[in-house]
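Quick one: structure for this chain?
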Amino acid sequence: MQLTHRVLLVGETGVILYTPAETGAGRALSVNWDAPDFERRVSVACIQSATPSPIAVLFNNGDQSYRKEENIAAGGRQTKLEAAFPAEQFPARASMEIAGARKADGKSYLLVALQGGEHMVRLADALKDAPVMGCGVLPIESTGLVDALADKLFGAEKRGRWAMLVGQHETGGLRQVVTRDGVLALTRLIPAEEPERAGRNWGDFAAREARATHRYLAAFGLQEADGFDVMIVCGAEEARLFSADIPPGTRRRCLTQGEALTLLGCRPSGHENDHFADDLHALWTERRDALTLSIPVPDLAARRTAH
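Got it. Here's what it folds into:
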């Protein structure tokens, strides 16, 4: 597949810019928010590139809010969005129809919002001259990734109704993306302190959070008969730390980032850090023709217009 755009992954601790590559995910830049020349470095990398293709901005930070609204009558979609997420607190908002959830008296929608703040302003300043094609959120853009991996690991015909992809991110936090019948059902970004980012501490931390999510889902509809397929991206050392204590109806597989890329038909470059999942999600978005849900970001639009 010919790759036509780049991906800027935006996290809690910094950003990573990915460029099309024959193998793996090519990194053009990785910079933390606390870098004194953050805006300049991001701007230069996005504009003065050997491949100045459009950029998809993929948010994987904690400033995301989601709400499911059912039975929305025709014309009531924007009203629900504005009521749920006031523009003063959530300047970037969007909604999408939930596939298969249409009812006789209306449609069901997933409402999504991003909070404003210093990071959003700084990012907008850095990208004011860049060819941005759109902004999306990782959980929605990677919903298809969850199901694609589950099909490969557990068999498309033997899949459970529920699936969860878990991965630690270099850009900050342990991300869980849960789907039910192929639709985003839940997502969590759990902060991880430095001792918990790898090794035995990470194994205990990730297993504890997976159990917490399972208990939460069980209280809201997950049943043993449904089947729950759990995939954990981690290093080979960390995979050995997970206990064999798996809840009934759950299947679990640990795999490295390189193994996940191979399952998706991508040839790893060999330079990926197999314990982290940033490259996997970025490459998945890079290989999509368009974002699943493009979210307008007023801060970015205002600076591009003024400039």
